[in-house]
Amino acid sequence: MIQNFSLLKITLLTAFLLVFGCKKNETSIQIPKTPEGMIWVPKKTFLQGAKDSDKYAMPREKPAHEVIVDGFFIDITEVTNAQFKKFVAATNYLTVAERPIIWEEMKKQLPPGTEKPHDSILQPGSLIFNKNVKAVVGMDNYYQWWTWKIGANWKHPQGPNSSIEGKDNFPVVHIAMQDALAYCKWANRRLPTEAEWESAALGSNTNTIFTWGNDASLLDKNANTWQGTFPVKNESKDGFEYIAPVKSYPANSIGLYDMSGNVWEITADYFNVNYYSELDISTPILNPKGAEKPYNPNNPYQVEYVMKGGSFLCNASYCASFRISAKMGFAEDSASDHMGFRTVADVGMLQKQK
Questions:
Q1: Which residues of the chain register pLDDT less than 50?
Q2: How far, rounded to the nearest angstrom, does the alpha carbon of residue 246 sit from its chain's CA centroid?
Q3: How far is CA 170 from CA 90, 218, 317, in A?
């Protein structure tokens, strides 16, 4: 009887320590008050990369692998024109698209022997989608629907004769990597890793293809993408032919808007097409930071980073990048009218801020 009683005490004590010890660990990190315009993404174990049932998955998205990502705060929407205006007003910052082009720097990212373009072409500007394209020959040559527009930048998205007047709640675009990092430094934020971005996009899910689940037929109701024949005809069934104001579509399960479609979003990770295939996925990976170096055989001279989420130009017939696992690379000094960003903050950053 005494032995049984002692065993009972030990059992109860062990259970007590397990239960309350776990609770202590869960609350040992004091989560600060949620910053305005952000949402807390809890710590989560999930499957990063292409899901088995994803028929659009590309090799660079495979294999799917289990990751553990600590909790963090993320912007509810992409950074808007209004928010970027405040940053520029406070810092007098000049974006990459607004600066003079230095040929000696540019040619380092081009094949050896590339001839210098005429000075009339080497003027500040950015890439815009060619809305007048009527036909294309093959889909490999994306220059058919992209145009270098002198004078295009975040204040003039379609060129010098356009403006963002009345568009404070639209995502800021024509943002290069350096611009996003400068904004983050000013705002005491940082860019999300690709794993953090996928954790946020999944919301309360852990293994879905889209931000809303697995039903592809719900795309038009949940994301601003291209309906019709890309890139020559957009039927605009979703109500927007091109870029849309933030919050024009339903939020995901944790309240984040536009994690699919509208504009691509910059992340902190290098773009390396072999990164997933070279990972050791025998055990879950804690807080992955991406590849150690960039690698894209199609752009071997450029440093590229990962962008996520797709844009208003994404169509199932071309890139289908409205999927959570989808990713594309962008050169660190490039910008366009369909790329923006959102920021994150972790507990440590906010504690230091105090």
A1: 1-27
A2: 15
A3: 20, 23, 26
pLDDT of residue 9: 36
Q: What's the Cα-to-Cα distance from 193 to each of 23, 64, 254, 347, rounded to whole Å?
A: 28, 16, 19, 15
- The DSSP 8-state label assigned to residue 29 in this structure reads S
DSSP code string of 300-347: TTS-EEEEES--TT--TTTT-TTSTT-EEEEETT--BTTEE---EE-H
Chain centroid offset of residue 277 CA: 21
Give the strand pairing for 65-69 and 285-286.
Answer: parallel
State the Cα–Cα distance between residues 41 and 134, nearest whole angstrom. Answer: 43
Q: Which of 62, 82, 81, 73 minimizes the C-alpha distance to 153?
A: 81
Q: Give the separation between CA 10 and CA 6, rounded to whole angstroms.
A: 6
- Give me the residue label for tokens 């002198």: 150
Evaluate the CA torsion angle 304, 310, 313, 319 in order and state its sign.
Answer: positive
Segment 26-65, tens digit of pLDDT = 345 678 899 999 999 999 999 999 999 999 999 999 999 9
Q: Do 68 and 45 contact (CB within 8 A), yes or no? A: yes
> What pLDDT does residue 229 have?
78
Could you tell me how many helices (H) and strands (E) the chain has, helices first? 7, 14
* pTM, full prediction: 0.88
